[in-house]
Design brief:
The complex is a heterodimer of chains A (about 200) and B (about 575). Helix content of chain A is about 45%, strand content about 10%. Chain A is mainly alpha-helical and about 200 residues long. Chain A has two domains: about 40 residues; about 150 residues, no CATH class. Chain A is extended and about 75 Å long. In chain A, about 45% of the residues are buried. Chain B is an all-alpha fold and about 575 residues long. In chain B, a hairpin with a 2-residue loop joins strand 3 and strand 4. In chain B, helix 4 runs parallel beside helix 18 and helix 6 packs parallel to helix 9. The longest helix of chain B has about 35 residues. Classes of the chains: A mainly alpha (about 200), B mainly alpha (about 575). Chains A and B meet through helix 1, strand 2, helix 3, helix 4 and strand 5 of A and helix 1, helix 2, helix 3, helix 6 and helix 7 of B.
Chain lengths: ~200, ~575
């Protein structure tokens, strides 16, 4: 047994140093040199200030913005109550409500009503009323974006065709039809709106 | 279901299968010690660690090495998690873990489970991720692959008393396989947007006005080994659903490939090692058959969408998007989760707790099958060999002959050990879930009521015992009962299977290899593939069907009837 102790112990220590420090630190150095943008979280700068990550959704409210998906994230406030914290990227996670959950049905029903009130009657895209897996989903489906377009065009007083053009320009298509999906990044859409490129 | 969705499954599996054959041949050379191009690195490691690479170990010696290494590494991780506040690389000043959570997490990563009863963003420092969790991701994977190799040597040899040298296997598997593949994959992930930084969380001024704190860290390398080693512990709470762990459709495809490739390479390596490639391909075929059915089944189930929500006015297409990410849609989400539960990877790119009942049943059932399609790295191979022993035993009973597998006579002691390994898991899953549901603490952990609550608890004990690590994540798992209970289930699920497997290897290795005769039941053709698949499905069905009926299947019919809880 004692004879075995030395190799077992040494392998753990040596590999912890190699695989736990040397390799990740060297790789971090490589990442910072070769892919600094991605390595630091794909942060987008506008007028010299970080305004968000290209990969992380934000909580947009108001008619002049495209809205991302519902986010199920919550925080515990000072009084110990659990309160919603949509797109709080210091955490991540899903609602984890099951398909026969009363809470799920009431949340989705309320979101459907709100969506129709904001964007008019008609079918409501799934992604617009269901919360995502990460709570930080940066994307929405093209159907969802196009349904939101008229309200945004009206709020910003620009022709609808311009907003629709913007969606088409920023849309991502699945490669070979199978890898990825047809979607558009909400922050990128709203950045263009903010910079007035849609006008 | 669409043609494109099915096309994704075909593409993902084609990429895995194409790579599995050359990788299997490479692994066989690794096991035989024929790969030497890194001997300049190997030699000093052996010298520093006091390893004699020429020394051969019997099954007991091999098992002692494996257990001792696991124990020491377990203790080290426990200490790191408790003390992380005082250790370097902790820019967010994250506090040490509680004893129960540190025990659970250390058991989890030692056993290649990666069950997450914690939220990493607020409970694990960068230092503990790198120096603690990531190292376990390498070594627990290597230990599994090593144990599978020991079993292969037993079948390959005739009258041999030794199974190789555990430490040499561990070092070689890490250096020749895990590290290079993980590094290559990490570069791709990094280029696609997975962060790799030691800087603290970013604070940005959002467009809509407000401050958003964005968790980040040294993710890319850990993400790669997390999938390749079928570990699955997320750098973030949302695991591979998090855009920083899995930013695009391409990274999702790569992660699926990493999860599956070694699992499918191992039966090929087995075929090479025993000099009967067709026998390896037979095991490979059973794995592939079950996995394909699981992937298609989950995709079909999730495409159906929730009838209650569709009735309320939501579009029926593309399918159930609750807990899924837009960039993956339905097919790419379900394929990932089935790949992760067909192996012992606890990773998810969508949240199974919110899958429709039948969609959630598939990952649950994939784990209950013992994770043999293709299974965790190493554990999948020895898991399916246990079932193969059972299958030839059943065939032997039918014709009244002593069963043989690959020229080795399977005798009473071998069968008893095989059944022990199979049944110990069932015991922990059913008794653990049943007991937890009877306690107040267990009931309080449930996030959902009705049959879905039963599914949550059943899934948790299945995932722990089978060393998977994925969850019906609504369950509050950080309690006395579940931290210690599932922690023990993980340890037994790992070592109470691995040790009997090594004992079987010891027994079979010592036996002579018999020549193929007229009366030998062929184990390399479609008949055996069918028999083995049947044995697996029937055995697992008998064990788990009652529980599955009360959980997901009951919920399915209640959902159709519009009943909510």
């Amino acid at each position: 047994m004692l004879r075995e102790l030395r190799p077992a112990f040494s392998v753990v220590v040596l590999f912890s140093l190699l695989l736990g420090l040397v390799v990740p630190l060297a790789f971090t150095g490589f990442a910072q040199l070769v892919f600094p943008f991605q390595a630091n979280g794909s942060l987008i700068r506008l007028h010299g200030q970080s305004v968000g990550s290209a990969l992380i959704g934000q909580n947009f409210r108001g008619k002049e913005w495209f809205h991302g998906r519902p986010s199920a994230l919550t925080v515990t406030n000072a009084k110990g109550q659990t309160v919603p914290a949509p797109y709080d990227a210091a955490e991540s996670g899903a609602s984890n409500l099951g398909p026969t959950s009363k809470a799920l049905v009431s949340h989705v029903t309320a979101r459907i009503a709100a969506y129709r009130k904001a964007y008019g009657p008609g079918p409501v895209p799934d992604d617009a009323v269901t919360s995502s897996g990460s709570g930080l989903d940066p994307d929405i489906s093209l159907e969802n974006a196009l349904r939101q377009a008229p309200a945004i065009a009206a709020a910003r007083k620009v022709p609808l065709s311009v907003v629709e053009q913007l969606i088409r320009r920023l849309a991502t298509a699945p490669v070979l039809g199978v890898v990825g999906t047809a979607h558009v990044n909400v922050l990128r859409l709203n950045l263009e709106l903010a910079e007035g490129h849609a006008a | 279901m669409t043609l494109h969705g099915t096309g994704f499954i075909v593409l993902a599996l084609a990429l895995v299968f194409c790579a599995a054959f050359p990788m299997g041949a490479y692994l066989a050379r690794l096991y035989r010690g024929q790969l030497r191009f890194l001997s300049v690195i190997e030699a000093p490691i052996y010298r520093i660690c006091g390893i004699d690479p020429e020394r051969q170990m019997g099954w007991a010696g091999y098992a002692v090495g494996l257990l001792l290494l696991s124990l020491i590494h377990f203790l080290l991780l426990y200490a790191i998690l408790r003390l992380q506040y005082y250790l370097p690389f902790n820019p967010e000043h994250i506090r040490g873990m509680s004893p129960k959570l540190a025990f659970n997490t250390a058991a989890s990563f030692t056993t290649n489970t990666n069950w997450q009863a914690y939220a990493p963003e607020s409970q694990i420092s960068y230092g503990a991720q790198m120096f603690g969790l990531a190292v376990h991701n390498f070594l627990s994977a290597a230990a599994g692959i090593a144990a599978a190799g020991a079993l292969m040597r037993a079948f390959a040899g005739s009258g041999v008393r030794t199974l190789g040298n555990f430490y040499v296997d561990l070092v070689r598997i890490t250096l020749y396989l895990l590290l290079p593949v993980a590094l290559l994959a990490a570069v791709f992930l990094l280029a696609s947007g997975v962060p790799m930084t030691l800087a603290p969380y970013a604070h940005v001024h959002t467009l809509a006005g407000g401050i958003q704190t964005i968790a980040r860290g040294p993710v890319a390398l850990q993400e790669a080994i997390k999938e390749l080693g079928t570990n699955g512990g997320g750098f973030f709470n949302a695991n591979s659903a998090h855009p920083f762990e899995n930013p695009t459709g391409w990274t999702n495809l790569l992660e699926i490939w990493l999860i599956l490739v070694i699992g499918f390479a191992l039966p090929i390596a087995f075929g090479h090692m025993v000099g009967r490639k067709r026998d390896g391909i037979a095991l490979f075929s059973v794995m592939a058959l079950i996995l394909v059915c699981g992937m298609l089944g989950a995709y079909a189930a999730e495409s159906a969408n929730n009838p209650i929500l569709v009735h309320a006015g939501m579009a029926a297409q593309p399918g159930n998007m609750v807990g899924k990410e837009v960039r993956f849609g339905i097919a790419q989400s379900t394929t990932f989760n089935v790949a992760a539960t067909g192996t012992s990877t606890g990773a998810v790119d969508s949240f199974t707790d919110s899958y429709l009942p039948l969609g959630g049943l598939v990952p649950l059932f994939m784990m209950q099958l013992g994770e043999i399609a293709p299974g965790g790295v190493g554990s999948g191979l020895y898991g399916i060999v246990l079932f193969a022993l059972l299958a030839v035993f059943v065939a032997g009973l039918m014709v009244g002959r002593t069963p043989e597998y690959l020229g080795k006579k399977i005798e009473a002691r071998d069968m008893k050990l095989a059944m022990l390994a199979i049944l110990v898991q069932t015991l922990f899953i059913l008794a653990g879930a049943g007991f937890s549901l009877l306690t107040k603490s267990g009931q309080a952990s449930l996030a959902n009521a009705g049959p879905h609550g039963l599914s949550e608890m059943l899934y948790a004990w299945t995932s722990g015992t089978e060393n998977n690590g994925s969850a019906f994540a609504g369950l509050s798992a950080n309690t006395m009962l579940l931290d210690y209970g599932i922690g023990l289930a993980m340890l037994f699920g790992r070592f109470a299977v691995m040790i009997p497997v090594l004992a079987i290897a010891g027994s079979l290795g010592a036996k002579p290899r018999l020549a193929h005769s007229e009366g030998t039941f062929p184990t390399d053709g479609p008949l055996f593939v069918g028999l083995l698949t049947g044995v697996i499905i029937i055995l697992v069905g008998l064990q788990f069907m009652p529980a599955d009926l009360l959980g997901p299947i009951a919920e399915h019919y209640m959902l159709l009837a519009g009943k909510t809880f």
